[in-house]
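User: Please run a holo structure prediction.
Assistant: Happy to. Please share the sequence and the ligand.
User: Here you go; the ligand is zinc ion.
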Amino acid sequence: MDWKGRDVISVRDFSKEDIEFVLNVAERLETELNEKGALDYAKGKILATLFFEPSTRTRLSFESAMHRLGGSVIGFSSAASTSVKKGESLADTIKTVEQYSDVIVIRHPMEGAARLAAEVADIPVINAGDGSNQHPTQTLLDLYTIKRAFGRIDGLTIGLLGDLKYGRTVHSLAEALAFYDVELYLISPELLRMPKHIIEELREKGVRIHETTDLEGTIPELDVLYVTRIQRERFPDEQEYLKVKGSYQVNCAVLKKAKESLRIMHPLPRVDEIHPEVDRTEHALYFRQVFSGVPVRMALLGLTLGVL
Amino acid sequence: MAELKVTAIREGTVIDHIPAGKGLKVIEILRLNRPNGGVLLLASNVHSGKLGRKDIVKIEGKFLSEEEVNKIALIAPTATVNIVRDYKVAEKFKVEVPDEITGILRCANPNCVSNHEYTVSKFYVVSREPLKVRCHYCERTMEEEEILGNL
Ligand SMILES: [Zn+2]
């Protein structure tokens, strides 16, 4: 696969080989970064970050990745400050910005916006979240984190906990994990179960799946516990939200039953799903997970720019 | 009752083997209910060896575009199209759901970019029986009922 000029829009566009390739390049870059401190593969290249809705963490992660590669960054962090406010089409914004830059990272509140941007632009476009649809770089960094922590993904037993109904992150992570030989525990309140069509798809691909509401009973089985936040804004009805709010909390008491090697992940920000006391334990992998975003995004930027 | 006799047409199209009850929908999506000069005939609940009951639509003086044939395939996958010239069937073929549906279907997701920006809509057929399509842009799947509502 020639990566130069390629767009990164959806996990659906990736094969297992693509994923493995990106993870390997990311690992190589992380090692190089540790040795040299700074790299210059993307020297002279410009990244445009077009954040039509704010997401400070994701934007900083991409910006950090581009700087670490020796490139520079332009962009905006909310649509309010651009001519989009004056009614400019997304296509025109993209066609304009590509005159200033070599690669575009886009975050947009509408589903499919990144795909449209990629069709319009001649330079590579990377999706940093389009509405409730895709956030492929998050999935790649999740996989990278698991691989770095365990040296492998195959053979692991992974629990996905929390909002499995509306959670975009867990949907695409589960789809990507289907490429591997894993066992999945889907732990959620009844109201927030993983959509049926996703479960069917995973089963067809040979993933062993268990659905449960019981965290404490399941935790001894797990190598990885991936925790997600239950997001109020996803609920059509406040009453429904109140019913499931705070259903689960991962704290040291719950973790007494866990394997010593259990690692806990979370896409962050968290509210009260993981007690801060867990931060000091060996189980906490979520800040390391944040760090993983940088080498993974360096790999994607460098590959699509054709400089690696 | 033997073969139902309805006015034969000299030139035009006969859409046969439409699932019973879908004939009106075919007329609607082809916008044949607008005055267009030709005769339009709908036979509904006709006895059929293959389907039990079927609808037939005859349109005088009109030949279908590829896009129109694809639209019919989405709502009446069993339909056959007969092209009539000089009172004779000059050509006959079955409709077929294409792998990609371009331009004729709107996405049911109100937050899909294709409903807000200038795009040509595009869907991939995920399954034919039952019909399921996935939007190229927002990746959401639509099933039969939603598809019919958005043609
Ligand atoms: Zn759509």
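The longest strand of chain A covers residues 46-51.
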